[in-house]
Every structure is written in structure tokens, then in C-alpha cells.
């Protein structure tokens, strides 16, 4: 007699010494609470088994049996015993999901002499095939064949050869087992597909979070040099006032005005840095100062040199007067839009429109038709550029949308606030 197995996590003790080693299947997950469907199926199985038990017993006791005439000569004590076995195992069906192998072993033992246990035996074999692995299922199947052979010897059918009875038993058991294995395989496939979907969603969320974090870090790096420039101006003018305390009042007032304006702009840039920098930057060196709206024509020329047909419409009177943060964001949006057009719609004309003014906001519209007769480029990419642009526009207080319009053109549109 072996040792008592430790209690399972869900609180069910497993007495391993009750089963041979090959029948222990501790890897299978325990059943959870019964669903409405499980209750309906269990009630149906119980009613079928109990109904068959009562029907078979009544037919065996009948003077003229109609359902089981081949066993009409059974003694009364055997019929009473058969009735008790059938009722007991019908009740035991309520625990067939938790202990399918235990129920199967009981069926193998008492099925060698019981007729009323037939329905329970079929349900038990099906439960083992569904809830246990193939090795356990194979052992129980072999046991079912031996049980049928013993039953044919102990309680033979009148007028039917033993070989024929065994052939029918083998066919029925095989059908039940194959049906159970198909159900188990389907359930495992559904669980596998569900796990894949959950992993794919989790990975996508992780990629989105990483893209947002990288974009915020990039913005903070871009602001690094600008903020340093503002502070250096403060230091320069403050040093000039310190060196020349007797300067004319006009020069002092001008220097003080420059210091005030630079300090105000530095504070604004610092607020933007604090707003986007959520975690320490990587150890890589900061990127160099960033372009703004005034360098959009140079960006368009660079794209044209790379083979992109660009039509740029810059509807801003003085691009150099655009606030640096808004200008950088608009430049990056146009840059990403041109890159996407070069990758996914080669040979098409990309129309870029940038317009706006102080107090109205800055509008960026990039659109290109779908490519005709030319395959997309194989330029590699991470697939998160638009996610980063959306994060950048949101942090700037604006909006960004992308997708196909009613005419089939791909449109990347953004609006950025431009204070007075």
C-alpha cells in the first residue's frame, strides 16, 4: 500500500494507492463549477441511466420479456443485485467529471455481471476519453474489452454466439472512445486558440506601450538641446549684467527682457519634458537639435531625391515663428507620412498640406492614393510609427487620425494647438 498523495491545490485529496501507476493522470486540470450546460447534461445522463435500470429490471421480472428476452431466465437474487448496482452507479454519474477513472474502474468490476450498468459504462468510457490522456484512455478501453468478454461468459445471451456478442461490444466501445477523443481534441484546440489570441493581444499591448514610451523618450531627448540653449542664453545675459553693472538703463532693460522671455520659454519647455518623460532615458546619447516647419521644404526635396513624388503646400506665413514644440511635432508627422508612403504606396503622388496660424491651430494633412500595379516596398519597419505619432500628438494637446477615406486614399491628418 503506497503513501497518501498530497492534497491538490483545489482541495481534493488524491489517494494514489487506489490506482495503478499508469492510471494516475495528475496533469489534467480539475473540473470547475458546473455550468448550466453541465447541469443539463448531467441530469440527462442520470435520467437515461436510471430509466434504463428500471426498464431492464421490470423487463427481467416480466413473465413475457420484450426488451431483454435473452436473459429472461435470470434468478431473482441476481435481478435484485443488478437493480442495486444500476441505481448506485446512476447516482455516481454526478461525479463522473471529477473521478472518471475511479468510476470507470468500478464499472469494469461490476460490469462483468450487471446488465443495468450498460448506460453508465458507455457514459463512463466517454468521460474517460474526454477528461484523461490517451494512455489512461487506452488502459480503460482494454479493461472494457476484458469486462465484456467476462460478461459474455458469466451471463451469455441465449441464441447468440459469444463471438458475435464480443464483436458488437468492440464496435460500440470503439465508437464511444473515438467520439470522446474527438471531443477532447476539439476542446484542446479551442483552448490553444484562445491562449494564442490572448498572447497576441498581450504582445500587441506591450508593443503599443513600448512605442509610446520610446516616443516620449525621443521627445524628451529632442527638447534637451532646446532647453540647454534657453538656459545658456539666461546665463549669458545674466553674466553680461554682472560684468557691466553700470550699463545704460536701456541695455539693462533689454537684457532683463531677454532673460525674462528666455526663462519663460525654458519653463514651458521644462513642463513639456516633465510631461512626457515618465521613466529615465536610456544611456544612448541625445539626438541632435530637431528641425521645425521651416525645414519642411528640405524634407520634401530629400524625399523627391529618394524617388517619392511629393506635392508640398505650406500655408503658414512665417514657419520660423511657429513654436518649436509644435513645429517639431508637425515635422515628425510629415516625415513619418512620407516614409509610410514610400514603403506602402511607391510611385504614387503624396500631397502634403500644412496650414494654420496662432490662435487657430496647425493642421497637417497627408494623403496618397493606393498603388496600382506595383507591389509595396519591402522596407523593414516596426509597425508602431503611427502609434508613436498618435502619442506625440496627444501629448502636444492635439489629435491624429489615419485611415482610408471614401475615395480609397490613405489619409494621415493631425491638428495641433497653436496658442496666441
Automatic annotation (TrEMBL):
Catalytic activity: ATP + protein L-histidine = ADP + protein N-phospho-L-histidine
Residues of the Signal transduction histidine kinase subgroup 3 dimerisation and phosphoacceptor domain: 215-280
Top-level taxon of the source organism: Bacteria
UniProtKB keywords: ATP-binding, Kinase, Membrane, Nucleotide-binding, Phosphoprotein, Transferase, Transmembrane, Transmembrane helix, Two-component regulatory system
SUPFAM superfamilies noted in UniProt: ATPase domain of HSP90 chaperone/DNA topoisomerase II/histidine kinase
TM helices/strands, residue ranges: 39-57, 77-95, 107-128, 134-154, 166-185
The protein's Enzyme Commission number: 2.7.13.3
Top EC class, one word: transferase
Record's GO cellular component terms: membrane
Gene3D superfamilies hit by this protein: 1.20.5.1930, Histidine kinase-like ATPase, C-terminal domain
CDD domains in the record: HATPase_UhpB-NarQ-NarX-like
GO terms, molecular function: ATP binding; phosphorelay sensor kinase activity; protein dimerization activity
Matches recorded under PANTHER family: NITRATE/NITRITE SENSOR PROTEIN NARX-RELATED, NITRATE_NITRITE SENSOR PROTEIN NARQ
Protein name stated in the entry: histidine kinase
Taxonomic source organism: Couchioplanes caeruleus subsp. caeruleus
Phylogenetic classification of the source organism: Bacteria, Bacillati, Actinomycetota, Actinomycetes, Micromonosporales
Amino acid at each position: 500500500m503506497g503513501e497518501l498523495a498530497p492534497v491538490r491545490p483545489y482541495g481534493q485529496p488524491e489517494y494514489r494507492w487506489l490506482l495503478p501507476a499508469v492510471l494516475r493522470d495528475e496533469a489534467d486540470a480539475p473540473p470547475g463549477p458546473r455550468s448550466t450546460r453541465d447541469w443539463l447534461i448531467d441530469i440527462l445522463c442520470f435520467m437515461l441511466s436510471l430509466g434504463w435500470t428500471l426498464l431492464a429490471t421490470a423487463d427481467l421480472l416480466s413473465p413475457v420479456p420484450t426488451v431483454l428476452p435473452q436473459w429472461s431466465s435470470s434468478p431473482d437474487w441476481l435481478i435484485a443485485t443488478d437493480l442495486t448496482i444500476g441505481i448506485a452507479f446512476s447516482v455516481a454519474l454526478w461525479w463522473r467529471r471529477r473521478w472518471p477513472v475511479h468510476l470507470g474502474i468500478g464499472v469494469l468490476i461490476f460490469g462483468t455481471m450487471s446488465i443495468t450498468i450498460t448506460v453508465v459504462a458507455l457514459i463512463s468510457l466517454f468521460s474517460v476519453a474526454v477528461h484523461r490522456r490517451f494512455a489512461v484512455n487506452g488502459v480503460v478501453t482494454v479493461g472494457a474489452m476484458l469486462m465484456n468478454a467476462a460478461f459474455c461468459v458469466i451471463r451469455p445471451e441465449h441464441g447468440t454466439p459469444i463471438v458475435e456478442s464480443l464483436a458488437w461490444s468492440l464496435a460500440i466501445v470503439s465508437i464511444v472512445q473515438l467520439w470522446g477523443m474527438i471531443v477532447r481534441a476539439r476542446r484542446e484546440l479551442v483552448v490553444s486558440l484562445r491562449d494564442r489570441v490572448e498572447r497576441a493581444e498581450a504582445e500587441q499591448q506591450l508593443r503599443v506601450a513600448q512605442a509610446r514610451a520610446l516616443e516620449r523618450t525621443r521627445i524628451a531627448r529632442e527638447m534637451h538641446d532646446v532647453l540647454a540653449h534657453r538656459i545658456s542664453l539666461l546665463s549669458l545675459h545674466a553674466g553680461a549684467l554682472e560684468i557691466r553693472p553700470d550699463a545704460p538703463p536701456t541695455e539693462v532693460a533689454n537684457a532683463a527682457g531677454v532673460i525674462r522671455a528666455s526663462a519663460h520659454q525654458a519653463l514651458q519647455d521644462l513642463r513639456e519634458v516633465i510631461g512626457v518623460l515618465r521613466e529615465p532615458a536610456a544611456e544612448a546619447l541625445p539626438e541632435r537639435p530637431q528641425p521645425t516647419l521651416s525645414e519642411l521644404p528640405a524634407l520634401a526635396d530629400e524625399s523627391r531625391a529618394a524617388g517619392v513624388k511629393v506635392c508640398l503646400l505650406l500655408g503658414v506665413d512665417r514657419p520660423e515663428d511657429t513654436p518649436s514644440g509644435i513645429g517639431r511635432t508637425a515635422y515628425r508627422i510629415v516625415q513619418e507620412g512620407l516614409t509610410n508612403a514610400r514603403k506602402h504606396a511607391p510611385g504614387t503622388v503624396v500631397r502634403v498640406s500644412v496650414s494654420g496660424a496662432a490662435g487657430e491651430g496647425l493642421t497637417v494633412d497627408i494623403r496618397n492614393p493606393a498603388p496600382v500595379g506595383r507591389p509595396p516596398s519591402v522596407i523593414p519597419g516596426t509597425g508602431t510609427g503611427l502609434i508613436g505619432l498618435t502619442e506625440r500628438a496627444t501629448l502636444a494637446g492635439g489629435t491624429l487620425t489615419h485611415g482610408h477615406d471614401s475615395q480609397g486614399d490613405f489619409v494621415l491628418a493631425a491638428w495641433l494647438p497653436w496658442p496666441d
